[in-house]
Amino acid sequence: MGTILFYHGFGESKDGYPTVLQLLAEAGFLVVGIDGIGHGERRYPDFHERFPPIAPHLIGNMQLEAAFLSVVRETAQEVPFILDALIERGWAHPERIGIAGHSFGGFVTYAAVVIDKRIQVAASVVGSPEWRLPLAESPHLHLDRFFPTALLSQVAGNDTNVLPAFAQALHHRLEPYYTQAPKRLRYIEYPNSSHNLIETDWKQAWEKVARWFLAHLYANKVNGQPR
């Protein structure tokens, strides 16, 4: 059916998402859970010193934001090499590659789409395409790099950690690029959830991700354009 790279939330690891990985695998995909830079099996030994717990007085801390975005950027830059290795081993087909991520992983998802055009389908849950620091790599600055990737963004309406307005704005700005295939662009907001989605929204979000990949990752192309 296709191969999906999956990226976890900030401070977590690939091993913390067995239910999500199993859901996507049972849908027929090879799912590759990956630890981001400094996380999981390659966690920074000084992780808590680099990234102190978020507290009200730290919100807006640009030094902390810069450290976070550095890890996002480095993790996304690995994606082409990971895809090369998977394709070489026969674990991925060059035309059936997807990526999904939660929170930190959502940031990585947007960045990876901009970096590697082999990604046909992408799904972010409470991630952001717009970075709070003026960095040239911020995905929202590269609108021409998204189409024809089928992009699903799911956000929380009451999220104060990752503002939903950033993903909403991206989708609005991308609409002219997707006039040939508008069904490949979808934005969903859960109005009753904060960054940590309530249980029903969490379950629904990942079910929608699975359906998104089923609808788009294995779809045949007609006349060179996605159906």
From TrEMBL:
Residues 5-190 form the AB hydrolase-1 domain. Pfam families: Abhydrolase_6. InterPro entries: AB_hydrolase_1 (IPR000073), AB_hydrolase_fold (IPR029058). SUPFAM superfamilies: alpha/beta-Hydrolases. PANTHER family: ALPHA/BETA-HYDROLASES SUPERFAMILY PROTEIN (PTHR47381), ALPHA_BETA-HYDROLASES SUPERFAMILY PROTEIN (PTHR47381:SF3). This is AB hydrolase-1 domain-containing protein. It comes from Dictyobacter kobayashii.
